[in-house]
Amino acid sequence: MIIAVIGKGDGCSAEAYALAEAVGREVARRGHVVVCGGLNGVMEAACKGAKSEGGATIGILPGEEPRSANPYVDTPIATGMGYARNAIIVLTAEAAIAIHGEYGTLSEIALARGYDRPVVGLRSWSLTRPDGAEDRSIIPADDPSDAVEKAIQAAQSQGRSSAPASTT
Predict the structure, then answer these.
(1) Among 16, 15, 162, 158, which Cα is nearest to 97's?
(2) Cβ neighbours of residue 160 closer than 8 Å, sequence gap 6 or more
(3) Which of 7, 29, 59, 156 is a Cys-bridge partner for 69, taking CB atoms 3.0 to 4.6 Å apart?
(4) What is the CATH number of the domain that holds 48?
(5) What is the pLDDT of residues 17-27, one digit of tens each?
(6) How many domains does the chain have?
(7) pLDDT tens-place string over residues 149-164
(8) Residues of the chain whose pLDDT is less than 70?
(9) How does 124-150 read in b/e, with b if 16+ C-beta sit within 10 Å?
(10) Residue 103 belongs to domain spanning
(11) Does 139 fall in a domain?
C-alpha cells in the first residue's frame, strides 16, 4: 500500500516534524510505502522516518529538477507542475495522512476527498460545511501509530490494496 504523508514544508514546526518522522517509521514498519511532495519539512521527516526502518519513499516534486528532492527520497518524480502535482500525490496513494499543514495541505486534503481517498488528520485541518455542519470526512487520529492504523483500515474498507508494497 502507498500512503501519502502531507503537511507543511518550509517553516514546519518541530512538533510536526517529529510526528511526521514517527508516521514514516510506522508506515515502513508495516511494510508500506510513503509518497509525499518530496521536499523539506513534513515531507522530509516522513521520508527520514521511513528510511530509518528500511522503507521505500516516493517524492512527487513541484519543479523540474529531481535533485531538488530531500535526501531521503528513493524515487524522485519531477513534474514541473507546482501545486498541481498535489493531484498526482493523492492519486498515487491509497490513503493520506495530513499532519498540521497550511493551504497546500488543505488543497491535498480536498483533492484526496474529491478522488475518494481516505484522509486521516493528525493535528491538522478540520472542516465545516456551508450549512455550518462539521465535515467528518477527515478521520481524526491521536498519535502517529493510530494515524497509520486508521489510514490502512480506511483504505482497506474501500477495497484498496491491503498487502504491504514491495520495496525491491
Answers:
(1) 16
(2) 1, 94, 95
(3) 59
(4) 3.40.50.450
(5) 999 999 999 99
(6) 1
(7) 999 999 999 998 756 5
(8) 162-168
(9) bbeeeeeeeeeeeebbebeebeebbeb
(10) 8-157
(11) yes
